[in-house]
């Protein structure tokens, strides 16, 4: 009877240990997955900010170019009317 009880206790401890290890593994995987998602979100935010900056610079350059063209056009009109 005692040997049978000992065997049952060992099986129970083995199952408990397996459950703890599985729980620990799952928790580790969830943390890793969360870290990966946070990294992805941060990378996407950086890319979006970079794209916004590039678009703003492009608009600034286009505006500068158009102003230059307008000034040259006005200068050409002035010299043509003289």
Mean pLDDT: 95
Our measurement of the CA-to-CA distance between the termini, rounded to an integer number of angstroms, reads 121 Å
**Percent of residues in helices:** over 70%
How much is the radius of gyration in Å? 35 Å
Main beta sheet strand tally, sense and closure:
none
What is the succession of H and E elements? H
Total helix count? Answer: 1
Binned strand content: under 5%
Could you say which overall geometry the principal axes of the C-alpha atoms support?
A: rod-shaped
DSSP strand tally: 0
Q: In terms of quaternary structure, what is this?
A: single chain
Poorly predicted parts: none
Decide which structural class fits the backbone: mainly alpha
Description of the structure:
The protein has one helix and no strands. With about 80 residues, it is mostly helical. It has one helix at about 1-80.
Characteristic key phrases:
single chain; 82 residues; mainly alpha; 1 helix; rod-shaped
Helix and strand arrangement:
Layout: H1 2-81
How would you summarize this macromolecular structure in one to three sentences?
This protein is mainly alpha-helical and 82 residues long.
